[in-house]
Amino acid sequence: MSSPLRVAIVGRPNVGKSTLVNRLAGRRTAIVEERAGVTRDAKAVEVEWAGRTFEVVDTGGWMPGGSALDEKVSRVSERTMDEADVVIFLVDGTVGVTEEDAKAAELLRRKSKPVRLIVNKIDDPKREHLIWDFMELGLGEPSPMSALHGNGAADLLDDLVAMLPPEDEEEEPESAADGGEIAVSIVGRPNVGKSTLFNRLTGAEHSIVHDMPGTTRDTIDTVVETSEGAIRFVDTAGMRRRSKVDDGTEYYSVVRALQAIDKADIAILVIDSAEGVTAQDQRLAERVDLAGCPVIVLLNKWEVASADDRERVTYQIADKLHFIGDSPVLQVSALTGKGVHRLYPALGSAIRAYETRIPTRQVNDVIRRAQQAQPAPHGARVLYALQGAAHPPTFTIFANRELPKTYVRYLERSLQEAFDLGATPLKLRVRKRD
Length: 434
Ligand code: GDP
Ligand code: GDP
Fold this sequence. Notes:
alpha/beta; Rossmann fold; GMP Synthetase, Chain A, domain 3; 3 domains; seven-stranded mixed beta sheet; binds guanosine-5'-diphosphate
């Protein structure tokens, strides 16, 4: 094993360094160490991408030529930087080039270290032109980033991985879900039957249920042993209360649902079959989709839905929730229990697909065959592809030029079929490489 690449993030206070560290670390990675001898200003996190590990260090505030007070911090930062293999110089696109940026850039140019200039707070792609001002720093072509929303993070990770020396293929597959249970959130509008479903799922004879404090204050998670392994239902506080304290306002339940989705690997979206898919259902589904979670749709209260209701809701799923694509849709009655038993196998296959990690060689085999069967138009060609991350499977495809959307979808389908990924939403990103 080679030692991990060390990446130091430097930049003025408030440009978004710690936000970027958190973004790169992802919600699954905890801070691994607080290095001895380095103040709390330097936090190292381990980041995994494309099966490789590297260490990202936030240098805290680094202000060359700042006041005496800043000097100590700056010395620590400088040491961190000197120990790093790569330096990310983070600047604030909404502020533009400041004097401090210019000073820092000058210092960085003098150190013979690879530097990536990243312009943060480009939340809207329409504002990407803001990056060009930073050319004057003389650190090469700047890249746009929104540490807050994540835009640009995957590109940056790809670039970092590309700087690592190549490693032998056939890495060992990750152990299931970092030793923890699979986290599932049950989401839906008020009154669709979430609590009833939850009680049914946890009341089953053979399940061993225990509660544990959730990941955030005021939340309770419930762990259930199932045929598919242990499943942790996230933030079940509201579902366990007999008389509901929450007033069921749309705002509150949506906020709570979104927080639960963030903590979950898989979302169960409950819909009232008799009422059909409402605008709020649609919004919730969009948010689940954005979170990259696989979704299982439960059409609840099926037993009281009329034939017309059933036909309508089935049509609406395809129409209004088309973006969740091939997600399994189950017709159930949480009240009577009918159909609920099919949920666990559905969860099981979604989990397996979600965790899939495919060796780079196999990914490239599939892409090569797909290209042979149907080449991309106008001389476009995929040069190389890799799975950057699991949860959900995220692929990066390097191509010699822009690929048409239909062709990207074709490649996506090819990967989905070759690796039997079912309903798990793949993420496919295309990057140009000469
Ligand atoms: P640091 O002092 O460099 O570590 O900066 P922080 O990470 O603490 O961020 C400073 C402020 O900028 C916080 O309020 C962040 O929420 C905000 N911020 C960070 N990244 C972004 C971004 O990409 N877009 C926007 N709009 N705000 C950001
Ligand atoms: P939540 O607000 O989403 O947690 O919804 P609840 O679980 O509290 O259910 C709201 C109402 O719908 C209650 O009166 C339940 O008895 C009822 N309900 C839940 N599931 C079903 C179902 O499958 N069929 C019928 N007919 N009623 C249900």
